[in-house]
Design goal:
Layout lengths: L2 E2 L4 E2 L8 H5 L3 H57 L15 H19 L18 E5 L2 E5 L10 E5 L6 E3 L1
Antiparallel strand pairs: 1-2, 3-4, 4-5, 5-6
Length: 172
């Protein structure tokens, strides 16, 4: 048998495209064609396997990147949340207070900030809005403390703030 270099098949044989041409081939040509067809199918099948394996790797890599991104976001949000300052407590508990008592508490918040800054006279320039009297400054076990001079006018036993407990406190 003579091989045609252009078609890589028997001399004078064109690449058959339909069944009538294949039926007209001799036994050797038909075997050769069947062998080439099988080789081509094997190559196509291997190529499909390789592509599907590559696609699986790509999909796996994508899911891995997504999982790592979600993990990073969760850790970042957690760290940012922990780094934010706590909410300032305005009051502990519920007290039905009037406007002048609320103003006195606001003054105690200002005094608390001054105490935390280390000022020697944190109540300087501030007076109880109900009576106009200056706040009382005392030194005790909890450090410096500042009291409202007339808590009974606010209908409480005590209004105060200390260095160790900077949230103004109301004692009924």
């Amino acid at each position: 048998m003579t091989i045609d270099m252009k078609t890589n098949g028997p001399l004078g044989a064109a690449a058959p495209k339909d069944a009538s041409l294949i039926a007209g081939l001799s036994g050797d040509s038909r075997k050769w064609l069947d062998q080439k067809t099988m080789e081509k199918e094997k190559q196509d099948h291997l190529l499909e396997k390789q592509l599907s394996a590559k696609e699986k790797q790509k999909i796996t890599a994508r899911y891995l990147v997504i999982a790592m991104s979600v993990f990073t976001i969760i850790i970042s949000v957690t760290l940012v949340t922990k780094s934010l300052p706590d909410e300032t407590v305005i009051r502990k508990g519920y007290y039905n207070t009037n406007k002048k008592t609320d103003l006195c508490l606001q003054n105690l918040w200002v005094i608390s900030g001054r105490i935390q800054k280390g000022e020697k006279d944190p109540a300087h320039g501030l007076k109880c809005p109900a009576t106009g009297a200056g706040y009382l400054l005392r030194h005790g076990d909890d450090g410096m403390a500042v009291y409202c001079p007339n808590p009974e006018i606010h209908k409480v036993s005590a209004l105060f703030v200390t260095k160790g407990r900077p949230v103004p406190e109301v004692v009924k």
